Fold this sequence. Notes:
Distance between the termini of chain A: 83 Å
Largest sheet of chain A: 5 strands, antiparallel
Order of helices and strands of chain A: HHEEEEEHH
Oligomer: heterodimer
Order of helices and strands of chain B: HHHHHHHEHEHHH
Distance between the termini of chain B: 17 Å
Number of helices of chain B: 11
Amino acid sequence: MKLDELRSKLGYQASLLGSVALLTSAALAFASLATGPDIKAAEEADLKQSLTQVLPGSYDNELLKDTVTLPSAEGEVLAYRARRAGHVEAVVYRVTGYGYSGAIVCVMGVSREGKLLGVRVIKHAETPGLGDKIEPAKADWIHSFAGKWLGEPPIDKWAVKKDGGVFDQFAGATITPRAVVKAVKGGLQFFEANKAVLLDEAGGEK
Amino acid sequence: MNEKYGRITREGLWDNNVVFAQMLALCPLLAVTSTATNGLGMGLASTAVLLLSNIIVSSVRHLISPEVRIPVYIVLIATLVTLVDMSLNAWAHELYKVLGLFIALIVVNCAILGRAESFASKNSVPDAALDGLMMGLGFTLALVALGGVREILGSGTLFANAHLLLGPAFAFLETTIVPDYKGFLLMILPPGGFMALGFLLAAKRVFDRRRAERAEAVAAVAVQEA
């Protein structure tokens, strides 16, 4: 058969590989175009949902569009501003702690007075059953941050109880809550250091 | 004809099961089966990819030179997985959040390349499609069995969070087997996966041997055929 002869030719094999690569790339490019807007919309909805969890109350601006990027000790921080009548009432940003197995990414909401509105862990790889009590689905621990600020508890009490602080640790897991407390404390210090810019008041009152 | 389809079905689901007989795809198997629901999700996604890749490989099998077949199969499978990944992310985002991590793992599932190489490249499209479907369902069976055992022993529930995967209509699947269970962490962690898999494999061997002893004459014929 003619095809059999052809199949053993080097040129045929090269062009076969080439055309397979071309066809699959075309399929991927087409799929990427077709799914791109939907994926973006879904991810924005996700982000918005995780941001509003730490932002009780109602705000009248487009949260995802009103952002400011600031340098910090851990690289750049992207903060989202929530406004009422043009006034920044709260800001939301991510902080990262390093727990028992890698990064723990939290999102925290801070009011203009510097009080915590809420903290949520959005990504972690801590041990199931021990360290994962930082998830609100597993335990109430993460809610204990709400209403706290750098004066309450005093700054040297921002630690787990084992280290002389006020926050509970979990039975069998101290490293995880310690990392979260440290990250949140760092986040509050970041707020104090950059308050004017975060609240959009750098150039005086509007 | 019917006998052939029956054989392909039996091979895929039990006799030549990806996990319990071929011992393939253990990496994704052990990684995701901390609950039965995760196992089911991974199994269904793998089945879809296996079915599609078998159909495509089988339909172009006369065009592909044996010398370059492996790279061609790998490119095809990687493309299929990426397509599944993108469409789930766009149109079934809730499901994607549960399964997202596992979908990329399907590319490294050697069972898919294995079926393309050993079955789809030598058989007609309908046969290859049935083989892909049955091998996939057999893999799903193994994933759900292992996930179920680990979930019951590890956290005392079965099919927890099934509604995230299958929709609210399937919330009835979520059962608490042992109320007030304190949890048995070992079974959720990787070592528990290895142990549970070992016991399941042993159980299958015992079951198969008992069945063979009971119908020795029939089994002897089947072995000759295989």
